[in-house]
Design a protein that fits this description.
single chain; about 280 residues; mainly alpha; two-stranded antiparallel ribbon; 7 helices; 6 strands
């Protein structure tokens, strides 16, 4: 009784039922008897078993290699897909958005000297930058366009994502204000560039419409573009005496914003890249 109890407890400890253990014991006895009395049969069976184990191991190795190969293929596919999505997001082709009326300008890629050796600290040092083709809006986003966005979006704060809760815009007399009927533009300022927009507000408008802000390099390249090579000091000109033809600034603006596109465009056909209002870039 004790021996049976120990037997049952011992096999149970190994996770094997008693009936299974009995058949294992019988099989081991047969193998031992065959080994002692029929050595050739034993060697043949042992060889067959060994061959089977070797084959199984080889298949396992091939399967593991194939799995690794498939893993590499999957990784390459994912990276390729990400690259295609990235190229689509940064595509030089204009984005057609029925909800946002924007005119696009294609900017040919190139290399330029970014920065200003005589400028502010954050404009130094001058360094060489190479850019691919991209597109940028011909005009700054207007008060009317931003008010339309806010009314569709339903909040003046970012609603979700990394910047949830951040304020997107502040009310201003030349800009957009909150009323009982929603966000409305101060009369007469509909076509003026939107003002008092935070970086979060500019970023969220782009995200809402499936767009993005230009990088600082892209913005500077487009603003200073010169059709015969090099770059302009200002957007459209390097001549201080002609700056007022291209930009609203302290000497001609009366310290107020003005409608977009009222002055001359630069060599790419972009308006107000110098003057009127400050503009946000993706890298702040």
């Amino acid at each position: 009784m004790v021996s049976k109890l120990l037997f049952r407890r011992g096999w149970a400890f190994l996770g094997i039922q008693p009936l299974t253990a009995f058949f294992i014991a019988v099989l081991c006895s047969v193998i031992l008897w065959t080994a002692l009395t029929h050595i050739y049969i034993f060697l043949l069976v042992f060889a067959i078993i060994g061959l089977g184990i070797f084959s199984a191991f080889s298949i396992f190795q091939l399967a593991r290699i194939d799995f690794k190969s498939q893993g590499r293929m999957l990784r390459e596919f994912v990276l390729s897909l990400i690259d295609r999505i990235d190229r689509f997001v940064k595509s030089p082709d204009p984005v057609e958005s029925p909800d946002l009326d924007i005119s696009w300008v294609r900017v040919p890629g190139g290399t330029f000297d970014m920065g200003d050796g005589d400028g502010r600290t954050n404009e130094k040092p001058v360094h060489r930058v190479k850019l691919k083709d991209f597109v940028i809006s011909k005009y700054a986003v207007t008060n009317a366009q931003y008010a339309e966005f806010l009314n569709k979006y339903g909040s003046h704060k970012v609603k979700n994502g990394e910047y949830a809760g951040e304020v997107m815009i502040k009310e201003y007399e030349w800009g957009v204000n909150k009323t009982d009927q929603g966000w409305q533009v101060q009369s007469g300022y509909e076509n003026h560039p939107v003002i008092e927009v935070t970086w979060y507000g500019a970023h969220e408008l782009c995200r809402f419409y499936g767009l993005r802000l230009p990088s600082e390099a892209e913005w500077e390249y487009a603003a200073s573009y010169k059709k015969d090579g090099g770059k302009h000091k200002y957007s459209g000109t390097s001549d201080d005496s002609k700056l007022g033809e291209y930009a609203w600034y302290s000497k001609n603006s009366r310290y107020r914003t003005h409608p977009v596109g009222d002055l001359k465009p630069n060599d790419l056909g972009l308006y107000d890249m110098s003057g009127n209002v400050w503009e946000w870039c993706q890298d702040r």
